[in-house]
Structure formats: C-alpha cells, structure tokens
Amino acid sequence: MAADESSQWLFTEDEVLSAPSIIDGLSPTEERCRRAKGVNFILQAGIMLKLPQLTLATAAVFFQRFYMRKSMVPEKMGVHHYNIAATALFLATKTEENCRKTKEIVIAVAKVAQKNASLIIDDQSKEYWRWRDSILLYEEVMLELLTFDVVLQSPYTILYDQLQKLRIEYIKPLRNVAWAFLNDSSLTTLCLLMPAKDIAIGAIYFAAKFLNDTIPDDENGNPWWELLGGEPDKIVRAVGILAEFWSDNPLKRTENPYGEAASSGDDLDRTRGRSEGASSMALSSPDAPSMNGVEPKNEQVSTPTKRKNENGEEEGLVEEPASKRQKSEDHSQ
C-alpha cells in the first residue's frame, strides 16, 4: 500500500502546529518559513541536477514528513533544514529511480548552500566531505523516522488520470496551471494535511478558477468533482492553504500568484459547465496539444529563472509562479 494511503502520514492542522520544532520553541511562522526554505533548497539543487519534477516532489514529501518526527532546532538536538533537504533529495533519486552519482548530488547541494552556482567543489575540498558525510549520516536517520515507508502516491500521476477521466487532458492551459499548483504546493504542508487525490482535485479547481474556465458535468448532470470522488470542503481548503502560504510569503517573493485565490463553495460551483460539450477553454483552444502519450511521471522541470526577494537578493534558480508562467505562455502563443 502506498504511503499516502496510510493515516500515519495524515495530520490535523492542530497536529501540524504541534510539530517537534514548534514544541522546541520555534514560532509556527518561523517553522513554516524553514520548511519552505528547505523545499526551495531541494528545488534549486534538483534543477541543477536536471531531475524530473516528480523526484523533487517526492523529496519534498520526505522532508515534510521527517519534521513531523524530528526537530529542526539544533540547540534542542534537532537537524538543520538544509541538511535534511539534501538527504531527502538523495533518497528520492533512489526511490524514484532517477539516480545521480553521489558526487554530483554533493556538489549540487554544496553550490546551492553557498548560493554560488559557479563555485568550484571537488572531492578534495572540506565542503565536499562535510556535505557527503552529512547526507550519508542522515539518510539512515531519515529512513528510520519514515519507517522505511518511501513508496508514495503522487498527485502528479493522479492529476493526469483525473484529467483523462474528465476528458480534458488535452487542454494545455488548464493542465499547465494545475501542474504549477502541484509544484507550488510542495512548499507547504499540504501533503501532511490531505491525500494526494484531494490535492490533485484541488489543482484542477484552481486551474479552472485561475483561467475563468468551466469543466463539464458528467452525463448524469453531477458536478465534475463528484466523478473524481472529491469533497467540496477539501477542494476549497487545498486552495485556501496555498493562498494563506503566499499571503504570509515566508520566502519573501515579490509575486503572489494566489493573491486573488479566495475560495468558497459557491466559487467552486462556478467552475461547473452545466451544458453538454467541452469546456470553454477547449472550444477556444482546438489546437492545444496533448501530452503525446507521455505520462506526468516523465515530465521534466520547467525552465528555471532567477528570482529575487524583497531585499533584492538572488535566491537562486527557481520556477516561475503559476500566474506569471501562464501569462508568459499566453504571450508566446
């Protein structure tokens, strides 16, 4: 059974707010910030290693789960979030069978840690051995705390299956925004709060909402989310969690792709296409290409860009947020 189906990795919001780091004195805001920085570390190193997005998402889940069992406060025998980010990435390359040489991973994480992609790192440097020893040490700790439960049910794979079930998998704009929602969700604790299926349904809802599109009801006139087994409360909550995260803006980003993402049951209902036929987006985009038979698990990380925080400091290579990414694509078409 996939780990996402196990209740040991699903928590209430109160339980997330009682994580070991918070018990050890971190404020919920600071703990959330460090989690986001750790996942961002994974994304930057992964882009440097040209790893598929699924592998990076798996690493992010390992990272988030680890800190439900262990503190990130060094003064309280905790482990720094960058050390665990590097270890989670190393472990994910194995479990997702996208292996890279240990040396390549060590060099990548060392460069990200130093915020210098041009940094010269080799196996003769102290920095190299410090990161290598850290990764190998904490890999065993991570496996034990995860109870060797490393087979995940990915929302990316579920997303594409759901789009096929709704017969809208060929609608490129909607598919891209939904995929971007999943990318952004990895920065949050969403994977700790609901199963992968509900996260994927939330991504479809956000995409339809963002594009002001509708999704056809099923042949019996039932809402599209019922066909997928979705629950309105969970769907709205998934988008709300991301909207709250970007409102808090722990990474100090200058853009907020979820600034107008306030959601409600009525808002969800407006994504229903009650008339027969394809969605409005499908009709306006007849030439939208399909995935060409490629499953989401093979999709690569999109082209990264340089992003700066509010202080003007470069944070490294990261993906554009959903809104900006979609506008760029529309402009190029």
UniProtKB/TrEMBL annotation:
**Segments passing through the bilayer:** 41-63
Q: Where is this region: Disordered?
A: 253-333
GTP-binding: present as a keyword of the record? no
Cross-referenced Pfam families, in alphabetical order? Cyclin_N (PF00134)
Bias-annotated ranges (Basic and acidic residues)? 321-333
Q: Give the keywords, sorted.
A: Cyclin, Membrane, Transmembrane, Transmembrane helix
GO terms, molecular function: cyclin-dependent protein serine/threonine kinase regulator activity
Entries under InterPro entries matching the protein: Cyclin-like_dom, Cyclin-like_sf, Cyclin/Ssn8, Cyclin_N
The residues covered by the Cyclin-like domain are 40-144, 161-244
Please name the Gene3D superfamilies in this protein's record: Cyclin-like
Which GO biological process entries does UniProt record here? regulation of transcription by RNA polymerase II
For this chain, the family text in UniProt reads: Belongs to the cyclin family. Cyclin C subfamily.
Q: What is this protein called?
A: RNA polymerase II holoenzyme cyclin-like subunit
**Species classification:** Eukaryota, Fungi, Dikarya, Ascomycota, Pezizomycotina
